[in-house]
RING-type domain-containing protein (Caenorhabditis remanei), 502 residues
Amino acid sequence: MALPVIYSNTDVLEFEKNKEASMEFTISSASILEMKHNLPLCFTIDPIYSTIQPPSNVIKVTYYPNSPFHFMMTNRTMKIDFSAKPAGSDNVVMLSVVVLVADKIMQEQEEMEEEKQKVNLYEQLECKICARKYSEDIEDLTPIVLNCGHTICWSCVKSLQVDINLPVQCPFDRTYTYDSARNLPKNRVIIDMICDLKRMVLSQTHGTCDDPLLPCYENDQHEATIHCTTCKEDFCNKCFASTHSSRILSAHQAVPVFEKPLVPPNCTIHPDHEVRYVCTDIKCQIMSKLFCEECKIGEHVSHTFEGVEQLIENNAKDVEDAVKKLKEEEAKMLNLKMEKVKKVLKSFDKYGNEYVLYVNSITQYFEQKKASALKKFEAFVDSESAKTEQGMLNIQTHGDSIAALRKELEKMLCRRQGLFDVKDEIDLAAKMSNLENEVNDDFNSLSHFCILYEMVTKPTLHPMFAKRERAPKQDDGVVEGKTSRKRTRVADDHEIEEITLE
C-alpha cells in the first residue's frame, strides 16, 4: 500500500514581532489529515477544526502582538503539524510548518506568493464550464463531484445528463459517470473553502457591524468570536486581548463562542435555582413547564419530565434547519425570481428594441394621430412598468422578511437565548420557506400584447400568451420575427392596422 503524500506551499511562516498580521498557506493531500499545533493564544488559526479534508485547504494564521499571552512564545518551537495514517498501517506520514516571530521580515517574494495563493483560491471556487461562482445556498451552483474526480456545478451536471437513464460524460477527460445525477456527492472541500473565504472577507472589514449576531462585550459593534469562561462574557479577539492585558486577567481562559456553555434560566417558582427539567406530564396544571431540583420534589413530584439540555439541543437543531431553509429561500427569492422579473422590466425600457419597434410603426402609419396614440401608448407602458416594479417590490419585501426572520433565528443560536419555546418561530419559518409559489413572478413583456396603431382600445394580451396564463407555467421566451399587419374593423367603422410579431 502506497503511503499518502502531503504537500505545503511553504514550510515557514515568519511574522514581525510588533506588527499584527495574517498569513495563509495551502496544504494538499489525497488523504484526510489530522492537524495539531502548539501555538499560544496570541495566534489564531483558521479553520479551527483538527481534521483537514482532501484535496486541498487554505490555512490562515493570525498573529496579535498585543495579546497578554505573548509571553508564552518564550523557549518554544512553534509549529503546525499535519499527519496521515493509512488504514491497516502503523506508518504515519507527517509534515510540519514552523511559525517564527522576528523583528523585521519584509520579503517581496512572500507577498507575490500570497497573491498567487489568492488567485488559485478564487479559481477553485468557480465552475470551469459556465464560469459562475459556486454557492452553498443556491442549488444550481452547488459544486458536484463526478466519478472521475472533476467538479462542476449542479446546473451543468443537469445539462450534461440529457436523459436520466444516460450517463454523464465529463467534458474534461471524457470519462463517463453512470450514477444518477441526483446521487452524485457535493464537493464538501469547496463548500468549506467558500465558508472560509466568507470568514476571511469578514475579518478584513475591521470587525465593525451595525447589528452583529453576537455583540462583543466591550464594543457592541464588533462581532464576538471568543467567550471568556472566567468573565462569562463574549469578546472579539482584539477586545479580549486589550481587556486581558494585565497580569491578573491574563490567566483567564477563552473558548470559541460556539463552544461556550448553555446557561439555563432561573426557575420562576424558585428564582435562586436554575431550570433543570421540562415537565412532559399531560395532566400537569402548573403554568410553567420548566422547573428546578426543588420543584422536582415539590410542585412537579411524580410528573414525567426530560432534561432541559435535551430540549435546547432539539430546539437548536430545529432552528438550524429553519435557518438553512430560509437561506435557500432567501437566495432563491432574491436571485432567481428577481432576475426573472428584471428581464421582464427590461422589456419596458423606452430605449429598448421592442419599444422602438412599436413607436416607429405607429409613427410611420399614423403620422396625423401619432401624438394621441403615443400618449396612450406611453401611459400603458408606464402602467405595465409600474405593475412590474410593484411585483419586484413584493418580491424584495418577501425576501427582506425572510432575511429578518433568519437573522433573528441566527441570533438565537449564537446567543443561546430564547430556545426554550420556538414553536411559533419554527412554524413561521416553515410557512415563509414555502412562499415561492405564492409570490407572483408571471409578468408579461411588451411583445406579449396586441397593440392597435390608433390606440383606440387598451392593449390586450396576444392569444398565445393569454392561453399561456391558463395553461401550466412554461419558461419565458422571446418571440422574434418580422412585423406583419392585419386589418381590423372597430365599432366606428374605421379600418385600422394591428401590430403583431410573427
In short: The two ends are 68 Å apart (CA to CA).
